[in-house]
Specification:
Shape of chain A: globular
Strand order of the largest sheet of chain B: 2-12-6-9
Largest sheet of chain A: 20 strands, antiparallel
Largest sheet of chain B: 4 strands, antiparallel
Helix content of chain B: 10-25%
Distance between the termini of chain A: 67 Å
Distance between the termini of chain B: 58 Å
Oligomer: heterodimer
Helix content of chain A: 10-25%
Strand content of chain A: over 45%
Number of helices of chain B: 5
Number of strands of chain B: 13
Largest interface: A-B, 63 and 57 residues
Order of helices and strands of chain B: HEEHEEEHEEEEHEEHEE
Radius of gyration of chain A: 25 Å
Chain lengths: ~450, ~200
């Protein structure tokens, strides 16, 4: 049982404490047309000027999120009056409020998109972009059954932990894109991406059931583990699977290849009303067998205690440990194909006060590992002068405010944005009561203006 | 321009710093009391089963046709236990937190008409059933009381489980086939929270 919690805690830490957890882009910038950010979210949107993005500071951010787990649900003041915090696993903590507030599947997620370089420029009436980004995504799913075991609240003693999983994927994308207008009302854009895979890892239990009653404790597990990365050492993990035993000494080496595409369209229904639609990261990665390890877990175990049957004193006994059930056995690796985390954005923007102000509504669907994240964001944008834009947003799903500012005079283009501003954070800067946190900042050097 | 940027950065820094809630300092995490369940948890874990054949008990009786008569006032036997039969983690769990060990004696198909059986069961010096509880066709299972933390440690260190068992009537009539195939099961369970 302790293994399950080690697994869950490792997953939580892998996502929340990961130093390479960065956001892809901020939704708050979707309607910020002066920023190159809007082109990242919708290839049909073009900034007023071209740009050159400097490595790292050209675009960097941080993003953490969960559909239901927050720090204040998992950690509590010591009920015995101690100075420190205790976790929900403390036996003096009543778990009922936690169980009532979480979902059947609890996702933790993180993303990275940092600029290696990027250029956008107008050539006649076409806005061309090309560049290179590093992307890393991570998803963890913790089924409610794991928390129910913490509470031991099931009368029948049956706990379902299906889809306990961890997935991480990292790759470098090299892209080239073009945006152009067709007529007065329609703008189209597309990007083609060549992807070089750096890391892919999935540990998942398709079927995991724990039964605890007074006559028998049993566990049945059916799962798989696939990992591909240069510098990954997991031999110990295969013998006694534990994420704590995985050693990863990153080597920048290509372990897989793939293709991806972004598409976007803007249509001016009225002079001041625009509809937008974009599809991002539509594609796949193919991972080879080199630098790969695959393993499966398929076993069951039951424990009904020591049995004494012979009056001469002989007895039979079983080991109480269930680690053998949850451990993985190595199997031959085979090449595999994984999909990218595709995002669909659909928005409507209404501009007023001679385009000094705008209001927009954005729907986003992100197809992550094992689930889809839906968001609806309302954005109000102020453009008081020709070198400054500020947005304020509200995410209806997360229930959180966001904001973004963009300074775009002739000599620099500075962007700072966050979709989920927390009102309270721990001393480690993790939000205490809100589920999401992201921040994106970048500096671009402006190039030539859009042709008249 | 510089003034605007510096003001914005300063404002953001002040806002972020003012939101820090020091009562959620994750560096001060205390995990000494970590486990499953809480003080009200009544989950049971099977620790062991002792199977006592009826024929062991009948050995203390003389038999004439279908009639059994007690010839030995103290029908008793013992089971030798393996060292560490109760794992260290379970002992620690029980002695560090609220929890009890119980023994339930049961017989799935106790024949009607057979007299009650009275049990005395103890691990070395720790007594579970003190001789007043009985098992019968109307009452096919009986449960012991709770143990203190010290008693849990004592039974974990025990090397024998002993029992005395005798029918409530010194003379009774029963079909041999009815009793020789019967087995009384003593199920040892731990109830309470489970500490890591």
């Amino acid at each position: 049982m302790k293994f399950l919690y080690k697994f869950a805690v490792c997953c939580f830490l892998a996502v929340v404490v990961s130093p390479t957890a960065f956001a892809q882009y901020t939704s708050s910038s979707f309607f910020m047309e002066q920023s190159w950010q809007s082109n990242m979210l919708n290839p049909a949107s073009t900034p007023e000027r071209g740009y050159v993005l400097i490595p790292i500071i050209g675009g960097t951010g941080i993003s953490l999120g969960s559909n239901s787990l927050t720090v204040d649900k998992l950690f509590y003041a010591d009920p015995n009056g101690g100075d420190g915090l205790v976790s929900f696993l403390d036996v003096d903590i009543n778990k009922s409020s936690l169980l009532n507030s979480i979902s059947s599947n609890n996702n933790l997620q993180t993303e990275l998109s940092t600029t290696i370089f990027g250029v956008g420029m107008y050539v006649k009436n076409v806005f061309w972009t090309f560049g290179m980004n590093l992307r890393v995504s991570g998803d963890v799913n913790i089924p409610k059954g794991l928390f129910e075991i913490a509470a031991l609240n099931q009368a029948d003693g049956i706990y379902n932990l299906d889809n306990l999983s961890l997935n991480m994927q990292g790759y470098v994308e090299t892209y080239v894109g073009a945006s152009f207008k067709i007529g007065d009302k329609l703008s189209l854009g597309a990007k083609a991406k060549f992807l070089m895979g750096v890391l892919d890892m999935t540990a998942c239990y398709d079927d995991l059931q724990v039964q605890l009653n007074d006559s028998q404790w049993s566990v049945s597990a059916d799962g798989y583990f696939n990992a591909t990365a240069a510098g990954l050492s997991i031999n110990d993990a295969i013998e006694d699977f534990s994420l704590e035993n995985i050693e990863y000494n990153p080597e920048f080496n290509i372990s897989g290849y793939g293709l991806g595409f972004d598409f976007g369209a803007n249509y001016d229904v009225l002079e001041n009303l625009t509809l937008s639609l974009s599809v991002l990261d539509l594609g796949f990665m193919s991972w080879g067998t080199s630098n790969s390890v695959s393993a499966i877990s398929s076993s069951s175990y039951s424990f009904s205690g020591v049995t004494f049957t012979d009056e001469d004193g002989e007895s039979s006994s079983e080991d109480l440990s269930i680690d053998d059930v949850l451990s993985f056995e190595e199997v031959a690796s085979s090449s595999r194909t994984t999909s990218l985390r595709t995002t669909i954005n659909a928005g409507v923007e209404y501009r007023f006060l001679k385009d000094k102000m705008a209001a927009g509504l954005l729907y986003s669907a992100r197809f992550r590992y094992g689930y889809t994240q839906h968001e609806v964001t309302a954005v109000v944008s102020g453009r008081p002068c020709n070198w400054f834009t500020a947005n304020v947003s509200y995410n209806f799903i997360a229930g959180q405010m966001g904001a973004a500012v963009n300074f775009h005079p002739k000599w620099i283009n500075f962007f700072l944005g966050a979709d989920y501003i927390p009102f309270s954070v721990t001393p480690q800067y993790i939000p205490t009561s809100s589920s999401y946190l992201n921040l994106y900042a970048g500096i671009g050097i402006p190039l030539g203006k859009r042709p008249e | 321009m510089k003034t605007i940027k510096l003001s914005l950065l300063a404002f953001a820094a002040i806002l972020f710093a003012s939101c820090v809630d020091n009562s959620y300092n994750l560096d001060d995490l205390d995990d000494d009391n970590t486990g499953l369940g809480d003080s009200s948890t009544e989950v049971s874990a099977p620790l062991g089963t002792v199977e006592i054949p009826f024929e062991n008990i009948i050995e203390g009786y003389s038999r004439a046709a279908q009639q059994y008569t007690l010839i030995d006032q103290t029908v008793e036997d013992e089971f030798l236990l393996e060292d560490g039969w109760l794992s260290e983690s379970i002992v620690n769990s029980l002695t560090d937190s609220d929890g009890t060990i119980t023994i339930t004696a049961s017989c799935d198909n106790y024949p009607e008409g057979l007299p009650e059986i009275t049990f005395e069961i103890w691990f070395d010096s720790v007594v579970f059933f003190d001789g007043v509880q009985v098992i019968s066709s109307e009452n096919p299972s009986i449960t012991s009381g709770e143990l203190t933390a010290q008693e849990v440690k004592d039974i974990a260190a025990s090397t024998t489980l002993k029992y005395k068992a005798y029918f409530s009537e010194k003379t009774f009539t029963a079909d041999l086939d009815d009793v020789e195939s019967l087995v009384i099961k003593l199920s040892i369970t731990k109830t309470g929270a489970i500490k890591f």
